Amino acid sequence: MGNMIETKNIHKSFPIGNKESIEVLKGIDMQVPEGKLTILKGRSGSGKTTLLNILSMLDDPTEGSFTIDGDDMTKKSTTEKEKLRRYHVGFVFQSVALVPIMTAYENVDFALKLAEYEGDRDARIKEVLGIVGLGKRMTHMPAQMSGGEQQRVAIARAVAHKPKIIFADEPTGALDTASGIAVMKLFKELIEKEGITIVMTTHDPNLMQLGDMVYEMEDGLCQKVVN
Asked: Three-state secondary structure along the chain?
């Protein structure tokens, strides 16, 4: 397998007034292998979330370019990038952002409708909730679940429409250690079963060993870590 994502000299600056700007990313060159778990590790302020937002097409680089599946994203229109996000990308956040008045089943179904999923929605919902270990909790509301269970619903929702890539920003940040490790093992299982590429950020050094590829982010720079 090749690389799902490749970046070349990615810079990102933000204006701070008085015609000045702050450079958050300072020339990022990296490769995200297809069908693997890549971790962006770093302290708060290191630039990892800014980089994740660019890779997931939520923001644009100030300078540089990157490809997804060999396609140059910096040449895509806003509409083209929105379509790619809707049909081929899944998101998992530290805040699970489930719809509180919907059951686990309905939360996943809602995501499938947004992605205009053309397969058997009922079968797919049951499949992904089964994969994340919540086959018997499908009719429960988020408030009736633990934080770890809610995050597993969020993961099921992210993978339901069969995206190429999942971007996860601090997905274990609000969880205890055991739940966090369970989420990481679930990611590995999903990669094996669904063939998905996952890119996640974390500041937790205990999770590094679970990544297939690990990059250390510090002061807007990125360096590959040898596990």
From this structure: CCEEEEEEEEEEEEEEECCEEEEEEEEEEEEEECCCEEEEECCCCCCHHHHHHHHCCCCCCCEEEEEECCEEHHHCCHHHHHHHHHHHEEEEECCCCCCCCCCHHHHHHHHHHHCCCCCCHHHHHHHHHHHCCCCCCCCCCHHHCCHHHHHHHHHHHHHCCCCCEEEEECCCCCCCHHHHHHHHHHHHHHHHHHCCEEEEEECCHHHHHHCCEEEEEECCEEEEECC
**pLDDT for residue 43:** 85
What is the tens place of the pLDDT at every residue in 165-208?
Answer: 999 998 888 888 888 888 888 899 989 988 999 999 988 877 87
69: alpha, beta or left, given left = phi > 0 and alpha = psi -120 to 50? left
Tokens encoding 135: 């086959």
- List the CATH number of the domain containing 75: 3.40.50.300
Average pLDDT over residues 16-31: 91
Domain that holds residue 187: 3-225
Which residues are within 8 A (CB) of 102 and not within 5 positions of it... i.e. 6 or more apart?
A: 110, 141, 142
Q: What is the number of domains present in the chain?
A: 1
Which tens digit of pLDDT belongs to each residue from 30-77? 999 999 999 999 888 889 999 999 999 999 999 999 999 999 999 999
